[in-house]
Amino acid sequence: MTVQTKRVSDPPTLAAEFAKDFADWSARQTHDKISIALSGGSTPKILFKLWAEQYADVIDWSRLHFYWGDERCVPPGDPESNYGVAKELLFDKVPVPPENIHRVLGEADPQEERFRYEDEIRSVVALGANGLPQFDLMLLGMGDDGHTASIFPHQRELLTSTEICEVAQHPVSGQTRITMTGPVIKAAKKTVFLVTGAGKKAVLADVIHHKGEFETYPASYIDEGDVTFYVDDAAGELL
Ligand SMILES: O=C(O)[C@H](O)[C@@H](O)[C@H](O)[C@H](O)COP(=O)(O)O
């Protein structure tokens, strides 16, 4: 995996570093429908808060279209909802046109929603060379088991699926989720992982140095194109 790694001291500094880079990057985009897939989990919360506090008037939010790389199949008001967290911390505080927020309908039947979401992706995101939608930016996290989006270890069918999205299950909780597949994630023009915390340092070192193969660490499957890991000192200790 040939990736860039940006090492910063702590999570607030990591969020600030990425937010600055993102503002510069989005301003450089020459088209109007800039497609961004957000990750869930806890790490993005600090970024959402910073965007709301410091970038509401800096970024041209009207050009951005937000999707989710994965979503839990729960109603938007559920604390588990990745959309619900982003709405509370970010979308209720910055001027993104409502029609530019493309949430997964977590309350819907997962199999039906999977197909509906694929259509919503196709309605905005142009196809790349592999015939799949090519997002401008894929924002990802990484679990301490090396999962990314909702593709967990030993779920090869999700990594190599030819579909845009698949219904997935969390291997421990059994929670049903909808996830973008490995090829769609991999096809993005630009991919950023935000990784913090000592609990991820061993797996991150393996992923970055490609010691573990992608069956074990799905995050290591994302090894093409413009991939940057923003890591804090705790997560990056072994790099
Ligand atoms: O819906 C999700 O949970 C995420 O998309 C998932 O892939 C997340 O990015 C990692 O689990 C890291 O989560 P943390 O940022 O909470 O460590």
Automatic annotation (TrEMBL):
Catalytic activity from the UniProt record: 6-phospho-D-glucono-1,5-lactone + H2O = 6-phospho-D-gluconate + H(+)
Domain of life: Bacteria
UniProt cross-references to Gene3D superfamilies, sorted A to Z: 3.40.50.1360
GO biological process, one term: carbohydrate metabolic process
Entry's Gene Ontology molecular function annotations: 6-phosphogluconolactonase activity
Protein name as it appears in the record: 6-phosphogluconolactonase
Function: Hydrolysis of 6-phosphogluconolactone to 6-phosphogluconate.
InterPro entries documented for this protein: 6-phosphogluconolactonase_DevB, 6PGL, Glc/Gal-6P_isomerase, NagB/RpiA_transferase-like
Residue span, Glucosamine/galactosamine-6-phosphate isomerase domain: 11-226
Origin organism lineage: Bacteria, Pseudomonadati, Planctomycetota, Planctomycetia, Pirellulales
Keywords: Hydrolase
Family per similarity comment: Belongs to the glucosamine/galactosamine-6-phosphate isomerase family. 6-phosphogluconolactonase subfamily.
CDD domains, sorted: 6PGL
Catalytic activity, EC: 3.1.1.31
Pathway: Carbohydrate degradation; pentose phosphate pathway; D-ribulose 5-phosphate from D-glucose 6-phosphate (oxidative stage): step 2/3
The UniProt record lists the keyword DNA repair: no
